[in-house]
Amino acid sequence: MRDLLLGSSPKDFDIATNAHPEEVDALFRNARMIGRRFRLVHVRFGREIIEVATFRAPPGSSGASAEHALQKESGRILRDNVYGSMEEDAERRDFTVNGLYYNIRDFSVVDYWGGLEDLSLGVLRLIGDPAQRYREDPVRMLRAVRFVAKLGFRLAPETESPIGGLASLLADVPPARLYEEVLKLFMNGQALSTFESLRHYELFGYLFPETDKVLNGADGEFYKCFIQHALRNTDTRIKEEKHVTPAFLFAALLWPARQKHLEKWNCEKQTEVEAMHEAAAKTLTAQIAAVSLPKRFSLPMREIWMMQPRLLRNSGQRAMRLVQHKRFRAAYDFLLLRNQAGEKDLDELAQWWTSFQELNENEQGTEARNNRNPRRRKKSTSKHSDDKPS
């Protein structure tokens, strides 16, 4: 309802009913019950999957039991399967603008919490006591940031004020769930403004703890500029309906942490390749303790990193082989991103690879042969100018 009333096309529709999941499942042949924390029914119609939820009541309502509702001492809801009425279901929704119902019986909009007024005012407001609602589900703080960026709304003062004091509750959220939230935060076309808001409310550190430490350190402004360029490019690609992969997104967001680990390289004890592998491993180990990252994305991410120094060696057959590598385009785009963010000693190299790709195969062979000596960059006083640690 929210998106329709704002004049945009909804990505999907949430269907709520007083029928219990077992009853919905029995009605449709192509139905499947899912979830434990929040039981739903997926009904398949061709290629479409319709998600059907039963009206819920607050966990503390009469009839609630440990089997159907469970909360931790912190207040976080672990299980939420206490069924109730439409009005009780509205009370459970997070924000007033998400608590609107379209009744197909009489084609009316049902609004129990002033969502229509908040829509007209451009205000995002939590239903109920904000501190309690954040404790029930700390992810609501991330959702607040996401919806403000997506809708261009502002947070109601009472919704905004508890966030700083409750941000640490995110540490109790399963990493797998936070991974899904990170994708929603940064792949919705508003990644840059979302990043700024996460930093403002001190939430970013619970999603990317090692990167956050770097951003708060001596080199913070340099790496902040890099991330801003990456997220600006991501937003542009999404608006142009181009493909965006989580591997590239995480490669950019974790690059500052990886570089800091690489700075500790001892050339007398390790080769450069060994140091890069170790830096990547340490970065990933720390990250997945906070936000998980599936291997189908973490492996390409590491390849993008590992190819950065290989792009420096652009002579002879090396250049021909690199262009054929399945990660070349992503690695090349990453190199351009580094250049755009301030690594000016990459100007010549970035231009060479750009021009090289515009040649046909025969011309590429000639250019690669003519470029026999590895392209060495001038020594720079900036420790950010080289992929090697200083």
UniProtKB/TrEMBL annotation:
One of its GO terms (molecular function) is RNA binding. Residues 152-213 form the tRNA nucleotidyltransferase/poly(A) polymerase RNA and SrmB- binding domain. Keywords: ATP-binding, mRNA processing, Nucleotide-binding, Nucleotidyltransferase, RNA-binding, Transcription, Transferase. It comes from hydrothermal vent metagenome. Residues 1-125 form the Poly A polymerase head domain. This is Poly(A) polymerase. It holds the Pfam family PolyA_pol_RNAbd. Residues 270-379 form the Polymerase A arginine-rich C-terminal domain. GO terms for biological process: mRNA processing; polyadenylation-dependent RNA catabolic process. Its EC number is 2.7.7.19. It is an enzyme of class 2 (transferase). The keyword ATP-binding applies. Residues 372-382 have a biased composition (Basic residues).
